[in-house]
């Protein structure tokens, strides 16, 4: 059973998320990429489900998030939406589907909303994507921003280390957060930045700020579900708290199944018709 005060609400909305920030209730957010997992974490009381382009890594085995396509994101999002009854579903617009062309950004966002049934889209960047954000919002599509370490720009950064440690980059991040709020974004994700800077951003803007590797003084937290459940165990950054060891549990279950099949123990008489 969910411990969230808002657990009795039929459907989370942007308005409810704003109310949660206003009253100091932390927002919980996890990724999901398929019907079954989405249904499990939705029933557990999660507030936001992100259909992240991290599906490129954890579902398809790519090194970065760049290869995943718009069609593939819509497929994953559609699967997730069918499994959700309460959570607010946000979908990443993938790399190459919105940068530098606001018309393409609008087309991508509309396709995601129409074909998946999701509730919002997420884009990476600040001032440089202001026009795209405005065009998407003009169609009535809610937009979540993403600043700090932006994985779609990994080849520009050249590393996954903490961002905005220097004053110039920190000041730009704060300004970008203000731009995203002024543009109409309903929330912002801050990834892998100093906790003090994240706190300042959360205090500067009035919209919810969700952190991943951004300390505890923001309005909510997000993790990749495969990471926090211990399914992917190679990735263990400081900010990750692993809540289960499903990789070991699944491995043990499969090994026992293989053993029982080989030993002709499965299926037994009671498991046969």
UniProtKB/TrEMBL annotation:
3-methyl-2-oxobutanoate binds at residues 53-54, 92, 122. Its main location: cytoplasm. It catalyses: (6R)-5,10-methylene-5,6,7,8-tetrahydrofolate + 3-methyl-2-oxobutanoate + H2O = 2-dehydropantoate + (6S)-5,6,7,8-tetrahydrofolate. GO terms for molecular function: 3-methyl-2-oxobutanoate hydroxymethyltransferase activity. Binds 1 Mg(2+) ion per subunit. Keywords: Cytoplasm, Magnesium, Metal-binding, Pantothenate biosynthesis, Transferase. The active site is at residue 191. It comes from the Bacteria. Pathway: Cofactor biosynthesis; (R)-pantothenate biosynthesis; (R)-pantoate from 3-methyl-2-oxobutanoate: step 1/2. Its EC number is 2.1.2.11. InterPro entries: Pantoate_hydroxy_MeTrfase, Pyrv/PenolPyrv_kinase-like_dom, Pyrv_kinase-like_dom_sf. It holds the Pfam family Pantoate_transf. It is found in: Cytoplasm. Its cofactor is Mg(2+). CDD domains: KPHMT-like. Mg(2+) binds at residues 53, 92, 124. PANTHER family: 3-METHYL-2-OXOBUTANOATE HYDROXYMETHYLTRANSFERASE. Belongs to the PanB family. Homodecamer; pentamer of dimers. Catalyzes the reversible reaction in which hydroxymethyl group from 5,10-methylenetetrahydrofolate is transferred onto alpha-ketoisovalerate to form ketopantoate. This is 3-methyl-2-oxobutanoate hydroxymethyltransferase. It comes from Belliella filtrata. The lineage of its organism: Bacteria, Pseudomonadati, Bacteroidota, Cytophagia, Cytophagales. The gene is panB.
């Amino acid at each position: 059973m969910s411990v969230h005060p808002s657990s009795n609400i039929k459907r989370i909305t942007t308005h409810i998320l704003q109310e949660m920030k206003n009253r100091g209730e932390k927002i919980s957010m996890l990724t999901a990429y398929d019907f079954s997992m989405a249904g499990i974490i939705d029933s557990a009381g999660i507030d936001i489900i992100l259909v992240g382009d991290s599906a490129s890594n954890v579902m398809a085995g790519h090194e970065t998030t760049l290869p995943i396509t718009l069609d593939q994101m819509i497929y994953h999002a559609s699967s997730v939406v069918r499994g959700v009854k309460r959570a607010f579903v946000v979908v990443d617009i993938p790399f190459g589907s919105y940068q530098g062309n606001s018309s393409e950004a609008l087309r991508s966002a509309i396709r995601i909303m129409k074909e998946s049934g999701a509730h919002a889209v997420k884009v990476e960047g600040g001032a440089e994507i202001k026009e795209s954000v405005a065009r998407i919002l003009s169609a009535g599509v809610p937009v979540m921003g993403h600043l700090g370490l932006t994985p779609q720009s990994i080849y520009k950064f050249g590393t996954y280390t903490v961002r905005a440690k220097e004053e110039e980059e920190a000041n730009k991040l704060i300004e970008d957060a203000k731009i995203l709020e002024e543009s109409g974004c309903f929330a912002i994700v801050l990834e892998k930045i100093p906790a003090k800077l994240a706190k300042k951003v959360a205090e500067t803007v009035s919209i919810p700020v969700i952190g991943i590797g951004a300390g505890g003084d923001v309005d909510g937290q997000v993790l990749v579900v495969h990471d926090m459940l211990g399914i992917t165990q190679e990735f263990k950054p400081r900010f990750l708290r692993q809540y289960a060891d499903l990789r070991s549990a699944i491995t043990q279950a499969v090994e026992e199944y293989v053993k029982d099949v080989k030993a002709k123990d499965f299926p037994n008489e009671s498991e046969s018709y």
